[in-house]
Amino acid sequence: MKSAAAVILAAGLAWAARPDAAGLSPVTIDYPEEGAVFPPEITPPTFLWRDAAENARAWLIEVTFTDGSPAIRIHSPGDRLHVGEIDPRCVSGNNELPRLTPQQAAARTWIPDSAVWSGIKKHSVGHPAKLTISGFSDRKLHHAVSHGSVAIRTSEDPVGAPIFYRDVPLMPAELEKGVIKPLAPAAIPLINWRLRDIAEPRSQVVLSGMHTCANCHSFSADGKTMGMDLDGPQNDKGLYAIAAVQPAMSIRDEDIITWKSFRDQPSGPMRVGFMSAISPDGRYVVTTVGVEQDLSRNFYVANFKNYRFLQVFYATRGVLTVYDRTTGQRHSLPGADDPRYVQTNATWSRDGKYLVFARAEAKDAYPEGRKLAEYANDPNETEIRYDLYRVPFNGGQGGQAEPIAGASRNGMSNSFPKVSPDGRWIVFVQAHNGLLMRPDSQLYIVPAAGGVARRLRANTPLMNSWHSFSPNGRWLVFSSKAHSPYTQMYLTHIDQEGNDTPAILIEGSTAANRAVNLPEFVNIPPGGLAKIEVPAAEFYTRFDRAWELAEKGQHEAAAAAWRSALELHPDDARANNNLAFALARLGKLDEAIACWEIALRSNDQLPEVRENLARGLESLGLTAMKKGAVDEALPNLRRAEQLDPADAGNQYNLGLALLRKSDLDGAIAHFHKALDLDPRPPQTHNDLGVALSLKRRFDEAVVHFRAAIAADPQFAQAQSNLAWLLATSPEATVRNGAGALELAAKAVELSHGTDSRALDALAAAYAETGRFPEAVETARRALDLAEQPLVPALKARIAMYQRQEPFREK
Q1: Radius of gyration over every alpha carbon of the chain, rounded to an integer in angstroms
Q2: pLDDT category, 6, cuts 50, 70, 90?
Q3: 8-state DSSP, 2
Q4: What pTM was computed for the model?
Q5: What distances in angstroms separate CA 247 from CA 104, 226, 531, 670, one per listed residue?
Q6: Separation between Cα atoms, residue 560 and residue 522, nearest integer Å
Q7: Gap between the Cα atoms of 32 and 15, Å rounded
Q8: Are 243 and 255 in contact (CB under 8 A)?
Q9: What is the pLDDT of residues 363-389, one digit of tens each?
Q10: E strand segments, 209-298
Q11: How far is it, in rounded angstroms, from Cα 440 to Cα 465?
């Protein structure tokens, strides 16, 4: 809290207010640190100190100046530090409320009022001010018991621009291999995007309530254009927004590109852009493209239940690709497109003439036999250590990439480079493994041309990352977890020689149980960005709501939700596909097929659409076949084959339909195709045997009947069919009466004596072995059970058996 005590000028001080430091207990000033430099426009900070004197009851705060100005003295009650505002929406079973550390709990606080703070800043520009805190055992400040001081300064350099950042809950999701998914789905709409002018006490929410995640963002140097990665439906990271920055900003459908839409252009297949960055002039976007179709080989991702460090992600394979907004084309960047390496995390020089990127030898993200990491810096993480490289841009023509001395080949992982606006310096993250946000990540500065890297003085003890230069290059903003697992945002001043100052906390950035990440300076005037609307994301919001209903099995509600999404994008392939699936579950197969046809016309490269449409057409074909309408079934089955020729089931169904049409050659061809795709189904072997028998290819038929029985020894129909062939074949080399009798008897046993065709085959086997009385008796039993089409033939065979003649197929 702010002290209500009055400001006392030096001329009116009592003698007792000037304690001699000798023999007094120490006052440790925790914040700001010795040598801290504040921006001239920043609002009053919270000063923190700990007093070793247990009997200290009140404090005198004295600020003296070297410019000859009168000192400022203030009586402070030394209020305790308290945890700040809590957002109740962000409390979950997977996180904890923030707590003060023992050091913080022991701290006293003072926040100068605006007038006092303005005076301190005014008289400490270019000259350090000495802030002394003295503890007293009495509230009248007569008996000094403790003493401590710190020197601070105010910079001549303003920050000069607001900071755009994400304000996120830390509510971890279930682990999902290969997917960057740190938050539970219900937490996504709680993400805020804020703009912070440090001259104001609070930040401004410019975007909130989105049901899809927007993450890595960048702005052009003139502040006129923003680029931002977007997650599409179900964590599809193939979307990128490029929009004009203005006070009332809108990201519309026409502002969205889909990286996947470039599949026919160079650089190979592309499903996701990783850590994209827009060029200083806003014309180009550079991003990382995975070189493997299987995303899990390109990106190592581990999501943790521990909210303190709830994710790890970094590229292990990939090349840099450049998108040109003026031509609508993308292409690999020569010099950063070698598939033997992973090239990622690129940033632009302010003049756009070169890029700095992270490079390492490429490897599979998840080596076989290695467990997935369970926490940040788990030894099971896939090891990757990046070096920083510099490559000319040359209008997208690239050039020779060169390692940056001091930020490469140092046994550490060097990543997230940022080039100072004057082009002299690169500030980057160094850690033992991976990229960004590591518990051990530290900020280093190195000459842009390479040289000796220096660790920034501003580093805190835990995670220093996500940094950005102010437009004038004199300030660096970054994130850290030094004082809370809920990441906070800090500033440091950097002079022309690359020297930095102790970290300054940007207070009031968010609630105490929310985290700040991706802070970036935006080169805009006050009021240049007040609100961002994303009508382009409404479709994805509706999509995800429909998906949730479908996962719950609420297909009627899901179908209505899919139709709602399709009102915005009627031709969207995935939404049409999912609506079709819901309709199919509701038994509306004709409507489902119409939706799948729309999806296929919209995007013929989605395998699930082709497969689902093929299954739907196959279902229609099977329904028609059950009604005996083979001519109606065949067109649907043939279309299904065109869509998915590798479906063994549909190949079988086509064979069966053609068999019923007496197209034996066609039936045999499709049965063979089915077995080439899947040699296991006994029914396919059996029906192929039937077709081959009708074509008088008896030896081949025997092979497939035997294969059916081998696959399923309880398959009565195959036993019966083979018995019939061995008993009645016109070719003596095929007939085997004893074998037929054994098989037929087994078929009758398996069918419990109720199958007329099994009894017919047994009768034929009896006749073939000369046991005609038994043949007659068995054939009469078959006649009693037979359906009408079989009755005439059975009567004729009974007559033959009575004449002691075996039956032979013609």
Answers
A1: 39
A2: very low
A3: B
A4: 0.77
A5: 39, 13, 6, 64
A6: 41
A7: 28
A8: yes
A9: 999 998 889 899 999 999 999 999 999
A10: 214-219, 225-232, 236-244, 248-250, 256-258, 274-278, 284-289
A11: 10
